[in-house]
Amino acid sequence: MEGLVPGYWVRLTLREPVGEEKRPVGQVEYVDEHGIRLSLLDGVTGEAESWDFYAPWTNVLGAVVATPNHDVRRFVEETIKRELGGPYFADVPSQQDN
């Protein structure tokens, strides 16, 4: 996919699930002619995890993309709510709220 560069956030739709991943979400780490590597989204912290996910282009049907020109925080919030089925991390009371 042209236009995807490291640092962008994406939600991929895969042709075939890889493990439990059918719609992996993460920050782009690397893109080449063979596929894309993401640091997966941690649904608790809202940050990229320390391990990566690789998808070959032959298994990618499409992507929702958030560039630095988009509201990346909102993308992450909405993705956690919709795709990961959990509350967004900001909805969890902090220690200061108790």
Write a brief structural summary.
The protein has one helix at residues 72-83, and strands spanning 9-14, 25-31, 35-41, 48-56, 60-66. By secondary structure, the protein is mainly beta.
Describe the fold and architecture:
The chain has 98 residues and is mainly β. It has a single domain (9-91), classed as Roll (SH3 type barrels). 12% of the residues lie in helices and 37% in strands. It contains 1 helix and 5 strands. The protein has a 5-stranded antiparallel sheet, with helices on one face. β3 (35-41) and β4 (48-56) form a beta hairpin. The longest helix is centred in the C-terminal third of the chain and has 12 residues, at 72-83. The chain is globular. The N and C termini lie far apart (46 Å).
